[in-house]
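User: Can you help me understand a structure? I only have the sequence.
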Amino acid sequence: MYKSTAVKLFTFIFIVVTLYGCDIKKEKFTTRGWDDGDGIDFPKRNSMVDDLVATHQLKGLTYKQALGLLKYPQRNGSKEKSMEYEIVRKMDGIDTIYAKSLVLYLNPDSVVSSYKIIEKDNKEKLKLKFEKQNAERKK
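Assistant: Let's start by predicting it. Here is the structure, written out as tokens:
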């Protein structure tokens, strides 16, 4: 029983260290590199996103220009007009541990009015989940 808990704790710590302990290799942005991936995983985006926002004027791009630069987004916002490009998604089974996305917000004329890089970190939620599972097993 303790061995199982130790293995889960080690796995959790390994995932957190892997996510936050590694230096990200920086790369120059290219449209081809940004779009490189299988539709679920885009391995070059995280290393390119800093160069993208530093060297390209995203604000003011038309919808068509944004598609030319970044290709098709993974999600489009329906409430507010937006285009979301997934940069990183780390999973543990069906649970998302960490997600990072670039969101372009469009004005009524379909011109990028602003953008934001959004990060969602669920490590505390998962820690509670593992603790609850371990408590249930001890019963």
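Now, to help you interpret it: The two ends are 11 Å apart (CA to CA). The helical segments are 2-21, 31-35, 45-55, 63-70, 123-138. Let me know which part you'd like to focus on.
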